[in-house]
């Protein structure tokens, strides 16, 4: 029993971090109707940038987020404006899949040149500290990571729900032509949306780098999980994405603790397949699929 | 009345295929013009060229003499051109009220603009009781006829100089269709300038000051509603023996989204 609860705690904390990574992915899918295969690579890029800032300048990894996020925002917006926007005219959604994959490979290549392919982690002094609450171990970094994720998710929800930009995004997601006819500039919304999705990768990267070891190839592993979460959550639903990420975290942690760590990654895909067999639209993607 | 909108030899199309082969059309200030024509004639394409969703090939689109062809849909909206497209155009997951407010998106960037948008929305809610009654309902939960009323109300939020209405009655049951024509009639009585596309030729022409017949990407005939309804060619093509066969056709777009 103790072991089960410990695993659930770990799973929820991990799931919170995945929720953050996947929310950026969901946002981009919602706005652009493009599966962004570069999201994993953006997270790894952010992890490296955060690591460099920590190692070279002694900046606390959590404090690197406000530095790395704007950089990734610009990178994301530039990718959309320069590479994806020209495609949209000819309605080439398959091409955009290739373009985002090319971006992922490009980032991987640059990272390999600059950092070599050794594994590394970000190790601040508190990296391995933990609290014990009622006999359960809670890693400090994991808890802080989870809290940061929730804070960023909350900010994202406020931005989408309460601001003029958010209304433009939701309108574009739900009916792009109607939004254009009301004066929303779709290209600009798409660039800002992609930028924002990329910026969430900055927060996710710093956290990821403290919890896991990574190298330039790590994005393949990440992107497959992110895609599963986004699909499980119902493609384009932010709430669904969070629930799916938490579910994924808990399932893999439980299987890892109670059965074998060998099956912990695989277990999630079993859950994904099982859910999709019953609900092909995902957990939350019902009538209003892609409504954010 | 001065000329508000003029199309001069406008061509347009999608990709390589040209759909409009030189459309000439004028619309006076305060006039309601009903454009009729068979499926695929290019009626919606004409409206898209005016609203800016589609670029003009050759020819010109002029508003009060100013060429619009290089302007984006947003810039044309700023000049008062509002389009209600043929396919459903509400944001289904937003509430009715938020949909209405989106009609003022161009204005609500400033505090005073936001206040103005709210004021206009409240005024529209008095004119369209549905807006107040279903205020918090999600737009997607409304019937087709209710959605069309919300779309028409939303289009009024910018107090447009020119309304482009693309088959507003299509796919609706008879009562909702009558409600649409009542609304169009009320707008006409207010002195709005409207370019109305209708397959429902009899009702459309009845609501209009003037009609034009578009066929294969060209305007073939223009005249008053009564003249067109009496014209044997129009009667043969669009009114058929039994009245309005076209109105019975299933709407290819109504199932979208
Ligand atoms: N997005 C598009 N891409 C390619 N071709 C299109 C597109 N929209 C319309 N067309 C074509 O252009 C032609 C004119 O279409 P348009 O929608 O303007 O006709 P319409 O008169 O409005 O017809 P309807 O009464 O069916 O609405 C048709 O042959 C149609 O197939
Ligand atoms: Mg049409």
Automatic annotation (TrEMBL), chain A:
| Pfam families xref list | BPD_transp_2
- Name the InterPro entries on file: ABC_transp_permease (IPR001851), BCAA_transport_permease (IPR052157)
> Which keywords appear in this protein's UniProt record, sorted alphabetically?
Amino-acid transport, Cell membrane, Membrane, Transmembrane, Transmembrane helix, Transport
Membrane topology is: Multi-pass membrane protein
Compartments (UniProt record): Cell membrane
Q: Does the keyword Membrane apply?
A: yes
List all membrane-crossing ranges: 6-29, 65-83, 95-115, 141-160, 189-214, 226-259, 266-286
UniProt entry tagged with the keyword Transport:
yes
Family the entry assigns: Belongs to the binding-protein-dependent transport system permease family. LivHM subfamily.
Protein known as: Branched-chain amino acid ABC transporter permease
Query: What is the source species?
Result: Streptacidiphilus cavernicola
UniProtKB/TrEMBL annotation, chain B:
- Keyword Nucleotide-binding in annotation: yes
Location of the ABC transporter domain: 5-241
MF terms in GO: ATP binding
Protein name from the UniProt record: ABC transporter ATP-binding protein
The record's CDD domains line, in alphabetical order, gives: ABC_TM1139_LivF_branched
**Similarity comment:** Belongs to the ABC transporter superfamily.
Sorted keywords for this record are:
Amino-acid transport, ATP-binding, Nucleotide-binding, Transport
User: Which species?
Assistant: Streptacidiphilus cavernicola
